[in-house]
Write a structure and sequence with these properties.
mainly alpha
Length: 390
C-alpha cells in the first residue's frame, strides 16, 4: 500500500517522510526503510531508535533494515548523517547498507565532511551497529582529522575514481602520485596511508623527506644527503629506488672534494643541484665557471662531470684554459642556450653590444667553442657599445 499523509498525528507524517518534513516525498510500505532513516528520524524527533522502529512497524512498515544487536538510545543529528553517503546535509539522502561492511572510503568521506577524525567516525558507526570493512581486528584509524584522506586513497583521478580499502597494497609510485595530487610530501602521504591501514612496500621513515628532497634526485643532492645523514651514496640510491624515485646514473661510491662545487648550479657546493640533461647536455658556460671556481682545466672538469652523468654535446669545444671573458660572452648569448641551438645574426649582434666586442670577434669565438653559426653571414668588424644585461 502506498502511504499518503492522512495521519492525525503530525509525528507520524514526519516519521514517514524522507526528510522528516511531514510532506512528500514519502516512504511507502512496499519499500524497505533503510537503517539510516531510522537513525535520522531518531535524531530529528528526539526519540530512541527502538521507538522509531516500533512506530514505523505500527504504521504498517514491515520491512525495516536493521543491524544485528541493540539499537542506540540517543542519536545526534550530526551522528545520524554519518551514515549518509549523499553528503553532510539532508539535501541528498543516500543511506549506506546496514547489512554490508562500511568501506574505508565512506568513513574518510564522512570524517572530512564533518571535520572529525576517522577513528571517531568509525567508533560512532560501530556504536550504531554497523560493521566495518576489515572486521574488528583491523588496526585503528587515525585520531587526527585530515580532509585530504579521501583523496589520498583515490587511485584513479578520472571519472568516479577507484578507492583503496584497508589492507590494500600501495605501490611506491602510487604514493608519489597521491602526494603530487594533494601537494604534500611523499613521506607525509606514505605515513598517512600506513595509518589508514594500507600496506606499503617500505616502512616510512622521518629522514625520507630529506632523502627525497625536491624529487629530482640529482647526483649532487644524493651526495649531499649522504654526507648529511652519514650514509654512503649507495645507501641513499637504494632508499630512493625503494621509495619509487628515478635515480640518475653516475653516482660515485666516494665523492671527490670538488664534486659538490661542480655539481651545484651556483658553484657554491650547495643546492640547487644541476640535474643531468640527456638531450642538450651540460652547458659549456657551467664547465668554464666550474673550472674557474676549482682551478681545474675545462677538460678536467668536463671529464669529471661526464663521470657524474653530465655529458657535453659531441661538437662542444672547450678551451685549454678557462677565461672570464668566455664566461661573460656565453652569459650575454643566453645562459639557457645550448650547443644544439643555432646562433643567429641578431644573437651575435646582441652579444657584441653587451660585451663591447665586435660582431666578427663574437662570431669567431662562438664558433671556436662549438656553437653553430650560419656560414654565409658577413659579421661587421665594428665594435659594439658595452652594456649590462638586465
Amino acid at each position: 500500500m502506498r502511504h499518503t499523509p492522512e495521519f492525525e498525528d503530525p509525528d507520524d507524517n514526519r516519521i514517514t517522510s524522507l526528510r522528516l518534513a511531514g510532506k512528500a516525498p514519502w516512504w511507502t510500505t512496499d519499500r524497505t526503510v533503510p537503517y539510516g532513516h531510522v537513525l535520522y528520524a531518531a535524531a530529528g524527533m528526539g526519540w530512541s531508535a527502538d521507538a522509531v522502529v516500533a512506530r514505523l512497524t505500527a504504521l504498517g512498515f514491515a520491512d525495516i533494515a536493521l543491524p544485528e544487536g541493540p539499537l542506540p538510545g540517543r542519536v545526534t543529528p550530526d551522528d545520524a548523517l554519518l551514515s549518509n553517503a549523499g553528503g553532510r546535509t539532508d539535501h541528498h539522502l543516500r543511506w549506506i547498507d546496514a547489512g554490508a561492511p562500511v568501506p574505508l572510503r565512506h568513513i574518510l568521506d564522512a570524517a572530512g565532511r564533518v571535520g572529525r577524525s576517522p577513528a571517531d567516525v568509525e567508533r560512532t558507526l560501530i556504536s550504531f551497529g554497523y560493521r566495518i570493512e576489515g572486521g574488528t581486528g583491523a588496526p585503528p584509524l587515525p585520531e587526527t582529522p585530515d580532509p585530504r584522506d579521501i583523496m589520498l586513497i583515490r587511485t584513479n583521478a578520472r571519472g568516479s575514481g577507484t578507492w583503496l580499502e584497508r589492507g590494500a597494497e600501495v605501490s611506491a609510485r602510487q604514493v608519489i602520485s597521491a602526494a603530487a595530487l594533494l601537494g604534500c610530501g611523499p613521506h607525509t602521504a606514505a605515513k598517512r596511508l600506513a595509518e589508514l591501514g594500507c600496506r606499503l612496500p617500505y616502512t616510512p621513515a622521518a629522514e625520507d623527506e630529506r632523502i627525497i628532497g625536491d624529487g629530482r634526485a640529482a647526483v649532487g643532492h644524493i651526495l649531499s644527503v649522504a654526507r648529511e645523514l652519514d650514509r654512503t651514496p649507495a645507501e641513499i640510491v637504494a632508499r630512493l629506488t625503494e621509495l619509487g624515485h628515478h635515480v640518475p646514473t653516475g653516482v660515485p661510491d666516494t665523492p671527490e672534494a670538488d664534486d659538490f662545487v661542480i655539481l651545484s648550479e651556483h658553484l657554491d657546493g650547495r643546492a640547487p643541484w644541476s640535474a643531468a640533461n640527456g638531450v642538450v647536455g651540460v652547458q659549456p658556460r657551467h664547465v668554464l665557471r666550474a673550472a674557474l671556481a676549482t682551478g681545474r682545466s675545462p677538460a678536467d672538469v668536463a671529464g669529471r662531470l661526464a663521470e657524474l652523468g653530465h655529458r657535453l654535446p659531441e661538437h662542444a669545444r672547450l678551451p685549454e684554459v678557462a677565461e672570464e671573458a668566455d664566461v661573460q660572452l656565453l652569459k650575454s648569448l643566453d645562459p639557457d642556450r645550448s650547443l644544439l641551438d643555432d646562433v643567429l645574426l641578431e644573437n651575435v649582434l646582441c652579444c657584441a653590444s653587451l660585451t663591447g666586442r665586435t660582431p666578427a670577434d663574437v662570431a669567431a669565438r662562438l664558433t671556436e667553442l662549438g656553437y653553430r653559426l650560419p656560414e654565409e653571414v658577413a659579421y661587421p668588424e665594428i665594435r659594439g657599445s658595452a652594456a649590462v644585461r638586465p
